[in-house]
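$ run holo --ligand "copper (II) ion" --emit tokens
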Amino acid sequence: MWTRRHFLTGTAALAALPLPFSVAAASGAIALEARERSLSLLPGTTTPIWSYRDEWPLVVRTPRGAPFRAQLTNAVAEHTTIHWHGIRLPNAMDGVPYMTQPPVGHGESFAYEFMPPDAGTFFFHPHCNTVEQLGRGLAGVLVVEDEAEKDLFLADHVVAIKDWRLKPDGSFDVFSTDKGAARAGTFGSVETVNAKPHAQLDALVNGWVRLRVLNLDVSRIVVLALDGAEGFVIATDGNPLPPVPLKAWKLGPAMRADIAFRMPRQAVRLQNVWGSKPELLAEIALIESALPGIGPVPTLAPSQVPEPDLKSAERLTFDLTAGHVSPALEAYLKDNPNVTLDQLCLPQRTFWAINGRSWSGQDHKLKPPPLAELKRGRSYVFELFNGTPHPHPIHLHGHTFRVLRYSKEEIVPHLADTVLIAPKERVEIAFTADNPGEWMMHCHIIEHQETGMMGYVTVA
Ligand SMILES: [Cu+2]
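-- output --
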């Protein structure tokens, strides 16, 4: 059998190695210093991004089931924390300021330590003033590796999608507008993949390629398709599933998909087919090889997420609605695009709600009652209904859920930590509430989160 190791002795060895900006966190704590650094995103300009290390995107690799330690030091002017998105970890490590830990002020430090129970593609980001902190670049990719997977793919590439709100001189523009926050989000002006217009990758002909695609943007939805090879979705939000042929796979903000394909004797393009014409996300160039072109799609071992008991599960409904913006006001704003809500002197910037309740704000200092109190060990079905005219990617902390069904669309049931819900769509997710604590549930279009589409559930 051809394995990655055979190639490490040959001249093509480099193609099989992880990307150069990967950091292995196998021993000791990885140092993450949140501070301003400079990155060129627009030709001839530099942007004062915020990042955790000198590399962007930062990719941290760590083994599954072994202690992972990260030391956050805050060298930015406001408080911050790190949320480890999608990792089933103890509540105290979840990185939600005021709720699970004190905020980490300027000059302060915080030690995160947990054992990632599942291998897969995850990421991390702040959970306060997120539209601005994540907007400025504070994010990292966390690849949890399983020993058994290491020879399955000859190329293993990260594809990190993130847009930036930049002025022509490379400086940051305002991160949020009322117009965007009250609708589909305020979009970036510069679209990037791995901080470039598109990612340029390579792979050995006939070798199996794994693309770890992450939507790190705060607003944009992409639809993945492959041109030049037959692709398969092999994991969703880090969780393996039996290979599903890739036709058009939707990723809202915070969602991930691992894509596998066998490298043909031609370049392969990963595209975003959301709009009217396909947009290039990544180009995978070929490296000649004498590999045989046979064998099935490599399959990953399933993650050890407890299966919910659907027969005994309690059913709870969550309605996603507009908050303080009435349909009449919405129509007025549409007709008067230059009028902002600030000019209308509304009491607070609250546009969205879950079950009629809005929890807005850039941090979580003032805590409302929970959306639901769950019993530890019990199975739940959450029915999420989107009564708004915009899609919402809803993220639940601390648990991985099974996406059971959509009311308006055929889907492949799969595991996820974030589920994208189209307008007027009703989605059912199920999970076992096995992780005690207070867990955020919110939209990951960050402006929606910060203007009301945010809540939490308790598990006790
Ligand atoms: Cu939303």
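-- notes --
The helical segments are 4-8, 130-133, 178-181, 327-335, 446-450.
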